[in-house]
TrEMBL record:
Residues 69-118 are annotated as: Disordered. Keywords: Membrane, Transmembrane, Transmembrane helix. Residues 98-112 have a biased composition (Basic and acidic residues). This is Sulfotransferase. It comes from Seminavis robusta. The chain crosses the membrane at residues 20-39. Residues 77-94 have a biased composition (Low complexity).
Length: 577
């Protein structure tokens, strides 16, 4: 691995508060939590935008620094300290190492946009991509990136994860809407976009957050949809009376959209969005012909509403992309309407990803759940942080998870993901191996080891588990980060893992002799081959293999397009090393 931690400057802890227990910094945690909560309030009240950088930095410095490199052995921690970090980090602490961009220098500097031909859009006349999720969510960002459009706001107010004030865009819009609607609010907000950044293209404005029930941070669910939240479209129009609405829709086969939805989202909409959106989302989350028909109707109405709104509001343009249309036709249409090169649309839709395992069409959307099959010390933390950085912290779990039943009224302890999987699969024989394991959509480092009790379960080494997973989630994504087998062994030895894997009574799938280098190298390489074979025999799954190096960042950039600094953060490097 070409990471060089020595090059890194000091930075601030990201989310592994539990590591602090090891350094007995309980007090610091308390301070950290207070500061984090304080900061979160600051973020949420929207008033921090004029604060000096120094002030923000001071608050950051107060946050405890994570010094522990890796906690393989799940601790019987009090959940209070173990898990409070994660939510605040989404908004307040996402800074992740200030210097790794040097290693990733091949990416264009987003702050200095190259001159583009005269475009029909800019900061004052921006594009709003307003669509239901899972309609080419990866295609659209690729398209603008290919065309060299630099100022793109995608999910976050600030694309750069090292920005201290980064928050989800939808949350920012929702906060502003609430202040504007609240007559007794003491916070002056005059625009729905206030404090949300300034971009030429905005996308991924829908925001959903599960309830928080960890430690001292208890909060109800949140949801915001810019099209369905009462009054939001009008406010958007008021903020930008000259804008282009881009919609992305399956006009011929809306059923394909329905088929591609992750299993959890219907419940999210019903439970977490309907209360604040006038019950605009369908109420049934069951699978039946009549429920399907309701979703298709909902889908079509969503786009109809946008179309009519744009028609009736002078100054707003509407560009409607039909995902079911021949890409050549759409490419021409977009060239006329947005003045962006034809090749970009075609490439974004039809371009391939090539890795050591072969080549395949790049996915148009992320197929959840994403199961990260990398073994410890092979990029599991890097993968988790990559997705958290692109999609929001709650979406990606690493090693530990808050059970789905945990609520602010009835908070439950975090459990090792592996323990939940083992119980579901081995004991309860549930069809859904992730049943009740929490709300995450990306699952990383899902094995667990408690040498003291002889307990151990690494699901991906268990053939039966992978088959059960594939059966219930036939369209899932397998994400596999790979490194050199020798480096991996060195790293696991430093953390005394091979001995514990070999000796733990229940540990199935690992070599018996912890000292035989060749056996462990073969084991590691065979494991990669097994994962590849599994992926190849499950054609409906998406398989993404990535080297744990800076090449990995470029490969992922072409697929997901999250900010390059999301890959190989300092924190993740320390854990994976
Ligand atoms: C931030 O500063 C700008 C000008 O410097 C001012 O117009 C704006 O009202 C300020 N916003 C807040 C929230 O204090
Ligand atoms: C309205 O604003 C006031 C003052 O900030 C606050 O106390 C109250 O809870 C808000 N009401 C709602 C419904 O959000
Ligand atoms: C893959 O998915 C398609 C469409 O959902 C389905 O018709 C097909 O049977 C699936 N193939 C396999 C091997 O499961």
């Amino acid at each position: 691995m070409s990471y060089d931690p020595k090059k890194e400057k000091e930075h601030f802890g990201y989310r592994q508060y539990r590591a602090l227990i090891k350094v007995a910094c309980v007090l610091l945690v308390a301070v950290g939590v207070v500061v984090a909560v304080h900061m979160q309030n600051k973020m949420v009240d929207g008033m921090d935008s004029n604060k000096s950088k120094e002030e923000k930095t001071t608050q950051q410095i107060l946050r405890p620094k994570v010094t522990e490199s890796f906690v393989t052995e799940p601790q019987d921690t009090t959940t209070e300290t173990a898990s409070t970090g994660s939510e605040t980090s989404e908004k307040a602490t996402t800074p992740i190492g200030k210097k790794q961009d040097e290693d990733l220098g091949t990416f264009e500097d987003k702050e200095n946009p190259a001159a583009l031909p005269d475009l029909p859009f800019d900061d004052d006349r921006p594009i709003f991509v307003l669509s239901l999720p899972f309609n080419g969510d990866l295609v659209v960002p690729r398209y603008f990136e290919c065309a060299g459009v630099n100022k793109v706001g995608r999910y976050w107010t600030h694309p750069d994860p090292t920005e201290v004030v980064r928050r989800p865009l939808g949350q920012c819009l929702q906060f502003n809407m609430e202040q504007m609607m609240n007559k007794s609010s003491t916070i002056p907000v005059s625009s729905i976009m206030e404090g949300c950044g300034r971009q030429s293209v905005w996308m991924e404005l829908q925001y959903i957050h599960p309830p928080l029930s960890k430690g001292s941070i208890l909060r109800s669910y949140q949801c915001f949809d810019p099209v369905l939240f009462p009054g939001a479209l009008e406010k958007l129009y008021k903020a930008y009376p000259q804008a282009i609405i881009v919609t992305v829709q399956r006009k011929f086969f809306p059923q394909l959209w329905l088929d591609a939805l992750p299993k959890d989202i219907k419940t999210h909409w019903k439970k977490w969005c309907n209360p604040t959106h006038d019950d605009a989302f369908p109420k049934s989350s069951k699978i039946s012909a009549s429920a399907d028909a309701k979703y298709i109707e909902f889908y079509n109405n969503y786009y109809k509403k946008l179309e009519e709104f744009a028609e009736n509001h002078q100054g707003w343009g509407h560009v409607s992309i039909n995902l079911d249309e021949d890409p050549d036709v759409t490419a021409k249409q977009l060239e006329e309407e947005l003045k962006l090169p034809q090749k970009c649309w075609k490439d974004s839709v039809e371009g391939e990803m090539v890795d050591a395992a072969g080549s395949a069409r790049r996915p148009m959307d992320i197929s959840f759940p994403v199961l990260v099959t990398s073994l410890p010390k092979s990029g599991a933390a890097t993968a988790q942080q990559y997705f958290a950085c692109g999609l929001g912290d709650w979406t990606a779990a690493h090693q530990w998870t808050t059970p789905s039943d945990s609520t602010p009224d009835n908070p439950m302890r975090d459990v090792p993901i592996g323990q939940c999987l083992q119980q579901n699969f081995k004991v309860d024989h549930k069809k859904d191996v992730f049943k009740g394991c929490g709300h995450a959509r990306i699952w990383s480092d899902v094995g667990y080891l408690r040498s003291a009790q002889g307990k151990c379960y690494y699901p991906s080494l268990d053939e039966g588990f992978m088959d059960a997973f594939a059966k219930y989630y036939p369209h899932a994504t397998i994400f596999h980060a790979v490194r050199d087998a020798g480096e991996w062994l060195t790293s696991t030895r430093l953390n005394k893992l091979p001995g514990r894997w070999s000796e733990a009574e229940e540990c199935v799938g690992f070599p018996d002799d912890p000292k035989e280098d060749a056996t462990w190298h073969d084991f590691y390489n065979d494991y990669t081959q097994r994962i590849r074979k599994f992926a190849a025999s499950h054609v409906n799954m998406t398989y993404i293999e990535v080297p744990l190096s800076n090449d990995g960042a470029q490969h992922l950039q072409s697929i997901f397009g999250f900010h390059p600094k999301c890959w190989g953060t300092k924190m993740a490097r320390e854990i994976d090393q």
